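From: lab user (bench 3)
To: helpdesk
Subject: output format question, protein + adenosine-5'-triphosphate

Hello, I'm new to running complex predictions and I'm not sure whether the block I got back is the full result or only part of it. Here's what I submitted:
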Amino acid sequence: MDKLILIKYGELTTKKDNRNFFINTLEKNIKTLLEGENIKITKDRVRMYITCENVEAIAKKLQKVFGIYSIVICHKVNNNIKDVLAKALEIMDHSKQTFKVVTNRADKTFNIPSMDYSRQLGSLILQNSNFKVDVHHPDITLTVEIRNNGTFIYTNELEGSKGYPVGIQGKGLLMLSGGIDSPVAGYLTLKRGVDIECLYFESPPHTSIEAKNKVLALASILNQYSGHIKVHIVPFTEIQETIFKKCPDTYMITIMRRMMYRIAEKYSEKIGAKIIINGESIGQVASQTLSSMVCINAVTSKPVIRPVACYDKLEIINIAQKIGTYETSILPFEDCCTIFVPKHPVINPVLANCVAYEKNFDYDDLIEKCLNNIEVIDNLNPSQFEELL
Ligand code: ATP
Ligand code: MG
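Helpdesk reply: Thanks, we reran it on our side. This is the complete output you should expect:
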């Protein structure tokens, strides 16, 4: 098999001490995402190589793996320049006119300097084809990497997802709703190497089974970037109904969100998540003003990461479209927040008021009950949900 996939590592190459850990995690993630495929991986400190049957399809899947700068379908030949020339003429697109050769010499024992090699190969190509050289704006860039185990040549490079391999930063708990923002927040966190598990608050019968399936569908899309996302479903009805009965309308959402954070904090301890992640964006709704965030955040000492805090809605939508969650997010099934929305939620809540209203009921017991009845869903795959939504 002379065709194989070459992976160029992303930002990880700058972190020298942790390099092996990064590379091994990346390899593990690739194996998880390509489970069932017949692949063979070899790696060194600068590149990873994958040999497999279906290189094009596998290369496409690899575009969703974080920690990869680019993916190249390349051809391996021996280090003899005649063989390199023959393969170059075979893979160069003859409908194009101009080219340049770029040579990287990882094998420094190879006795010709890179520039000289590019010139030599370039002039052989000129003699044996109709191509012309253009070093500034070539139609084709022919890259030649000379290594001690062979020469790798290619003409195009697919963009990788960049970021860090998922898992190198440990775990976070994502508050995942059926909206647009939280899946994007999850994606951005995965990209920084954080492994995520999701927490969804449901309030049946006020929320439907479709709302739950929608969240699972979103998690399954995110799972294409991770491979082992679990969703933990919190039965939240009793807490919501109690808040509805016992607290003033205006503070309902603020208090509900304080309860969500309390549960998220306790549950993150249980599953070993170091941070809580959510899709809050400054000023987007009344519960996301800075005063609201102060009141809501006050119940937890865990770091709460809000990756989209400073993005406009349109910027968030752009990412949602790019990562494939948008179409699912805009399906019309409502989750618990939208059902109990008061007409006039407080925009600048006061912490002392939250504490006073929460004295109207025994929330510790209710929270304990929620935590004891969480449903866990694993092995998520987008095809499971196609017919359910
Ligand atoms: P999104 O913000 O994801 O578009 P949304 O607009 O319905 O969904 P908001 O009311 O803006 O949600 O809530 C802000 C954040 O709180 C969400 O991004 C999400 O992280 C979290 N959240 C809201 N509702 C839920 C829920 N039912 N389960 C889990 N997390 C939730
Ligand atoms: Mg939102």
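A quick orientation on your result: The chain has a mean pLDDT of 93. Let us know if anything else is unclear.
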